[in-house]
Amino acid sequence: MARELPMFIPPGAPSAHHGSAAPETIAMGGSVTPLRRHPDWIKARMPSGDNYHDLKGLLRGLNLNTVCEEAHCPNIGECWDQRTATIMILGDTCTRACGFCAVKTGRPTWFDDDEPRRVAEAVGAMRLEHVVVTSVARDDLPDGGSRIFAETILAMRETSPGMGIEVLIPDFDGSDDRLRTVMEARPDILNHNLETVKRLQKPVRRRARWDRSLYVLRRAKEFAEEIGYVAHTKSSLMVGIGETRSELTEAFEALRKADVDILTVGQYLRPSERHLPLERYYHPDEFADMKREALALGFKHVESAPLVRSSYHARDQVPGAELKAIRRRQATLDAEGRIVPAAS
């Protein structure tokens, strides 16, 4: 019989037995029995609404990959209904095998130089207010896919000039040249996920490195300043895989030292029994405490809740998001179907 995972009990709440203390984590050579039920607060909104079904139909027709679907995101209904989506470029097969991720891994065989144009046209047809573009890791490519990222950003600026653009990038092996290629295309937000605390980096991310990820985030901001525009940087952490609260504080502080502006924190939910075990659930009160702590450290925006994922409420985090949304709703189409922003 599967044991129940330990849960936080807020002060003053009725006590409840949740089994004995958690065994050592998989990162330390231990194991965890698969979970059989989630607590009451882990409830995702059922996908519905006209916008959701509209985007779903368009994505199917345009043959686009989205992380929303590939990574089994619990917020797909809410985000798509708000006309935000996370497009995944460079195929659907990742060269890395992170212990938490539902995206398939293997040796990619897909590449298309025309992808930036097709993505830009598709995003324009979807009339998105904000888009997040990410990719699988493509360590097989000489530039890690950085050129396609940049060309996709530039193409989307042409077809959707009022739209917020965020890119969620791999670490590009810490290459300055690859990162600068992306930043020269001027994304509004440069996102790279630290994912977990320093001690658990190897079992969780395997080929990634803590210091390298922090370097990428710091250099992105420096490149933006050199290029001459303001970009916000962003990172995400998941909890429940064996980290301690003090280790999370260390991660928050390290991200702020790298001048990261936006932080998202969410509960890890195991995609399958082949993935890293879930050690425990964090209560919503704990997420609220982490949000207060992170804001006190100087983050400009923090999303911290059980179902928060890297792109959750992404459109609200773009500099000038409210004005851009208003102008986009006032935009018109030209004779060729391209979006023409309203006059300022």
Describe the protein in words.
By secondary structure, the chain is an alpha/beta fold. The strands form 2 sheets. An 8-stranded mixed beta sheet has the order 1-2-3-4-5-6-7-8. A two-stranded antiparallel ribbon has the order 9-10. The radius of gyration is 20 Å and the shape is globular. The termini are far apart. The N terminus is likely disordered.
Task: Tell me briefly what this model is.
It contains 11 helices and 10 strands. It has helices spanning 50-62, 67-70, 76-81, 115-126, 146-159, 176-183, 201-205, 210-227, 245-257, 284-297, 321-329, and strands at residues 65-66, 84-89, 130-135, 164-168, 189-191, 232-239, 262-267, 301-304, 332-333, 339-340.
Fold blueprint:
Blueprint lengths: L49 H13 L2 E2 H4 L5 H6 L2 E6 L25 H12 L3 E6 L10 H14 L4 E5 L7 H8 L5 E3 L9 H5 L4 H18 L4 E8 L5 H13 L4 E6 L16 H14 L3 E4 L16 H9 L2 E2 L5 E2 L4
Parallel strand pairs: 2-3, 3-4, 4-5, 5-6, 6-7, 7-8
Antiparallel strand pairs: 1-2, 9-10
Q: What does the radius of gyration come to?
A: 20 Å
Q: Which runs of at least 5 residues are low in confidence (pLDDT < 50)? A: 1-10, 13-33
Tell me the β content: 5-15%
Terminal CA distance reads 63 Å
Please estimate the helix content.
25-40%
| Approximate shape | globular
Mean pLDDT: 77
* Number of beta-strand segments: 10
The largest pleated sheet is described as:
8 strands, mixed
Q: Within the largest sheet, what's the order of strands? A: 1-2-3-4-5-6-7-8
> Order of helices and strands, N to C?
HEHHEHEHEHEHHEHEHEHEE
Structural class: alpha/beta
- The count of helical stretches stands at 11
